[in-house]
Specification:
625 residues, Nuclear Transport Factor 2, Chain: A, single chain, 4 domains, alpha+beta, 26% strand, 17 strands, Transferase(Phosphotransferase), domain 1
Length: 625
């Protein structure tokens, strides 16, 4: 049964009338509310316990909430969001806080990408002041991430959700302590300190680690560790160091990388021992003069990709596909004057600046004159550029799971030969296509023949007479697309493909988290499935299912079920081992969807059965309640 997530809208909690849901996470839901005394708009955070209301575990949660909330409410700092009220009503534990309309750091990073060094330093210093104050009061945050870095209307940073993880998860220092009873894994792995992942002692230095990961994300635009599953990400936190940012962007001093490495050291004793010490080290690293030997043009954005595959000690230069090179040109490195520049004293370089500026202006004027003198009189599009753009757009849409957009680039004649679902099903096991355009030639009829080489990463479901198994493969295809205009629009008129090589390897055994029990691994699979849906990684989500489901549900219909889905949040209710060795995962799924009338969020109760299929954890079935 599906119900609106705004089912509490209109409800009165204490002095607050809930108006609408404005945010949701794994541990809480936030409502905009009107407070009557005093009259003002506030944010009401309702905590979501991982136990049924009225149960003994829920009663323990409420008692813990009353104790911990009183401690959190006593935190008074300019960079910590104040708690106006904390109470419990009808089994609902809630906190009343100011309603901040400035958004969060998560939204800033999503809109702008990496931040400047100075802006990053300002945010880190404010967060450090808040953390040092809280740590002095014996309060550890435990869940630092950009979504908890709120922005006040006056521009300052305000940390939120101090101690929420402790209230929801329990009093133990172990992140996994509730697993002894419920098998439920809480929290996001993207910022998780090694001691949290391994069930070790948690203290203020745990916050230092998480703040180090947030610092990396501010400068890179993304987190340092990624993986297909929660377990893979956590394994990297346990064993790898973040990539070196100055190897991707020479404008970032190596000293900043040293700060990040120390803050995210695997052993707490090797980290900074206070947030203030961390912030001071960052300020020194940023403000100490640094002269990069490679200059990046001011208009080239810093794009850091494939962080999860970067080596822990030395990162390789980012490789770009043909499409990416067109969109984000790789900086050209020139070494012709390196020796002369390095032999000059540092002060003597400054007289070069006005001369350099004068030369730039002179060459710009000459260049403009030459361009205008030889510019063609017509503005007709270049057919080869148009053909290349169509092919690049086609594979870009495929890689982003925008199948309808890719299909629309086919001309009518091609669409008549293959319907949309047959087209989509061809990409059911394609993880990513890397293409390079080999040549473009013009045909006698004015159309263009585009020859491409495709390196396809695929996850294949193979069968023998006695078994079914999975393997990953890298397949090389030689493809020829005929591109031309149809009703004034550039389209793919025809296509042929030849498989030239395939290198396949059996699927490796799934990664384990410190020999995590089946209940944890099953839950991690369900969480990763919904993460893939939120990120439109439909191929990965489809491959989370066993062969029985895939035999009964084709890829096109699977993807079609999530056409309007924007995001999924999962609240786990129970994880139970069954006698046959499978795992039952009971959860509530909050789905945010785009509809003609706007965005809506609905909730549904889902029960999954997870089991092993050919030594890999797969979703075997799903039963909506």
């Amino acid at each position: 049964m599906t119900t609106s997530s705004d089912h509490l809208t209109g409800k009165v909690l204490g002095t607050c009338k809930l108006e609408k849901s404005i945010g949701r996470g794994g541990m809480s839901v936030v409502y905009l509310a009107q407070q009557t005394r005093p009259s003002r708009h506030v944010a009401v955070k309702i905590l979501l316990p991982h136990a049924p209301v009225g149960s003994s575990l829920h009663n323990e949660f409420l008692a813990r909430f009353q104790y911990e909330a009183d401690i959190i409410a006593k935190l008074e700092h300019i960079n910590i969001i104040p708690i106006f009220e904390c109470d419990e009503q009808e089994g609902l534990a809630y906190l009343v806080m100011p309603y901040l309309m400035g958004g969060s750091l998560r939204e800033v990073l999503a809109q702008r990408g990496p931040l400047s060094l100075l802006e990053t330093m300002t945010y880190i210093e404010q967060a450090a002041q808040a953390l040092d104050y809280a740590h002095a009061q014996g309060v550890i945050h435990r869940d630092l991430k950009p979504g908890n870095f709120l922005l006040h209307a006056d521009g300052r940073l305000v940390l939120a959700d101090f101690g929420i993880a402790r209230i929801v998860q329990g009093n133990s220092n172990s992140m996994y302590s509730p697993l002894t009873n419920t098998g439920i894994l809480l929290g996001t792995p993207d910022y998780m300190a090694p001691e949290m992942a391994s069930g070790g002692q948690i203290d203020s230095r745990t916050d230092i680690y998480e703040l180090g990961i947030v610092l990396f994300q501010m400068l890179a635009g993304d987190v340092p560790f990624k993986g297909r599953t929660f377990v893979e990400v956590i394994e990297k936190h346990l064993r790898q160091s973040p990539p070196l940012l100055h190897q991707f962007n020479p404008q970032i001093p190596p000293a900043v990388d040293n700060v990040i490495r120390k803050a995210t050291a695997k052993k707490p004793g090797e980290r900074y021992q206070s947030a203030g010490e961390f912030a001071n080290a960052l300020r020194n690293a940023i403000t100490t003069p640094y002269y990069p030997t490679v200059a990046i043009p001011y208009d080239v954005p810093f794009v850091l990709s494939s962080l999860s595959t970067a080596a822990s000690e030395a990162s390789q230069p980012t490789e770009y596909s043909d499409r990416q090179v067109n969109e984000h040109p790789t900086p050209q490195h020139s070494h012709s004057n390196t020796k002369t520049s390095h032999n000059l004293p540092k002060r003597s370089r400054f007289w070069l600046v006005p001369i350099g500026m004068a030369l730039v202006i002179a060459f710009s004027i000459i260049g403009l004159f030459l361009v205008n003198a030889h510019a063609p009189n017509d503005t007709a599009p270049n057919p080869q550029i148009e053909a290349k753009a169509v092919v690049n757009d086609f594979y870009g849409d495929i890689n982003n799971s925008h199948y309808q957009a890719a299909y629309n680039l086919w001309a009518t004649a091609l669409q008549k030969k293959k319907d949309y679902c047959s087209f989509t099903d061809d990409y059911a096991h394609t993880l990513h296509d890397d293409i390079s355009i080999v040549s473009i030639t013009q045909n006698a009829d004015g159309t263009l023949k585009v020859k491409t080489s495709i390196q396809a990463s695929e996850k294949l479901n193979l069968r023998t007479a006695t078994t079914i198994y999975w393997e990953t493969a890298t397949t090389t295809y030689q493809e020829y697309e005929t591109v031309g205009q149809e009703n004034g629009t550039w389209k793919i008129l025809g296509a042929s493909q030849i498989k030239t090589n395939r290198v396949a390897t059996p699927e490796p055994p799934p990664a384990t988290l410190s020999d995590a029990p089946p209940a944890q691994q099953a839950q991690a699979l369900i969480q990763q499935f919904h993460n893939d849906i939120s990120n439109r990684n439909y191929s990965a989500a489809y491959n989370s299912w066993g062969t029985g489901f895939q035999n009964s549900t084709d890829y096109c219909n699977f993807v079609g079920g999530y056409t309007n889905t924007l995001h999924h949040d999962v609240l786990f209710q129970a994880v139970n081992m069954l006698p046959d060795g499978t795992v039952q995962v009971m959860s509530t799924i909050y789905s945010t969807e785009e509809t003609p009338s706007g965005k809506i969020t609905t909730s549904s109760q889902e029960t999954y059965i997870v089991g092993q299929e050919n030594n890999a954890w797969k979703i075997l079935s799903e039963t909506p309640s």
